[in-house]
């Protein structure tokens, strides 16, 4: 597994690196202290996932996330930030972050968050999920197959059958969660855009949701894991970036 950490605080990067190596002894870590360094790594390296601080010297706030996702659309990004406001978390989800981890998290919470992210799950602060669901109008959504999976005590990676999905729908779900718009998913899966849009519509209907942002919050709430994000190729992402720029949920 290859992971990029983009944060301007060397001590925090070192601590996160220690935690990652405890979880994955064979992990390969790349470090960047600025957005430009992070983008250079992202554009030239095969990577599984990025942990990104929002407050960087040359890329403050949402711009850093937006620029990274535009350059490497298939590369999952987990935001790690000192900002714990629900508004910031919601905006990062809209900008296709795969998860959000507050820097104030105690070590055991940070451990759980990173474990979930690297297993293809979504992590959001528990204190923000209820507010996010309320703001999105999904706090009264009925329990679906996702809820049943978790209520049974299932903690391993889910599969299509367990979630009541076809294999293609499950693959679409995984790429959607990792932050790809539908047009880029179509290119990634070698399908027509209209086919992927149909899969996305089926997924949202299946989980009684309307948008990708609601899907991200639901997966964080249910604890579903979709599998370790695969290594992504920066050269392949060049085509996805151009093809997916106009994509929507």
UniProtKB/TrEMBL annotation:
UniProt cross-references to PROSITE patterns, sorted A to Z: HTH_LUXR_2, RESPONSE_REGULATORY
Listed CDD domains: LuxR_C_like, REC_NarL-like
Region Disordered, residue ranges: 137-159, 230-249
Modified residues (4-aspartylphosphate): 53
Annotated ranges, domain Response regulatory: 2-118
Protein name from the UniProt record: Transcriptional activator protein ExaE
A Pfam short name: GerE
Record carries keyword DNA-binding: yes
Metal-binding recorded as keyword: no
HTH luxR-type domain residues: 158-223
Composition skew (Polar residues), residue ranges: 146-159
Domain of life: Bacteria
UniProt keyword list: DNA-binding, Phosphoprotein
InterPro entries documented for this protein: CheY-like_superfamily, EvgA-like, NreC/VraR/RcsB-like_REC, Sig_transdc_resp-reg_C-effctor, Sig_transdc_resp-reg_receiver, Tscrpt_reg_LuxR_C
């Amino acid at each position: 597994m290859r992971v990029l950490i983009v944060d301007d605080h060397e001590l925090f990067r070192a601590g996160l690196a220690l935690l990652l190596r405890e979880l994955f002894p064979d992990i390969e870590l790349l470090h960047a202290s600025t957005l430009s360094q992070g983008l250079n790594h992202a554009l030239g390296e095969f990577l599984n996932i990025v942990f990104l601080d929002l407050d960087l010297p040359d890329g403050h706030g949402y711009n850093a996330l937006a620029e990274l996702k535009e350059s490497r659309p298939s590369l999952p990004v987990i935001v790690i930030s000192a900002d714990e406001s629900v508004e910031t978390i919601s905006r990062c989800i809209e900008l296709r972050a795969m998860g959000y981890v507050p820097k104030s998290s105690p070590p055991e919470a940070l451990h759980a968050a990173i474990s979930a992210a690297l297993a293809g799950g979504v992590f959001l602060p528990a204190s923000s999920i209820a507010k996010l669901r309320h703001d999105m109008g999904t706090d009264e959504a009925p329990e679906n197959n996702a809820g049943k999976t978790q209520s049974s005590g299932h903690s391993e990676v889910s599969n299509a059958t367990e979630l009541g999905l076809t294999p293609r729908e499950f693959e679409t779900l995984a790429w959607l969660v990792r932050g790809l718009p539908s047009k880029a998913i179509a290119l990634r899966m070698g399908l027509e855009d209209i086919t992927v849009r149909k899969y996305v519509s089926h997924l949202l209907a299946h989980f009684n949701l309307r948008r990708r942002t609601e899907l991200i919050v639901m997966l964080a709430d249910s604890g579903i894991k979709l599998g370790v994000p695969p290594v992504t190729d920066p050269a392949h992402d060049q085509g996805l970036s151009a093809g997916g720029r106009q994509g929507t949920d």
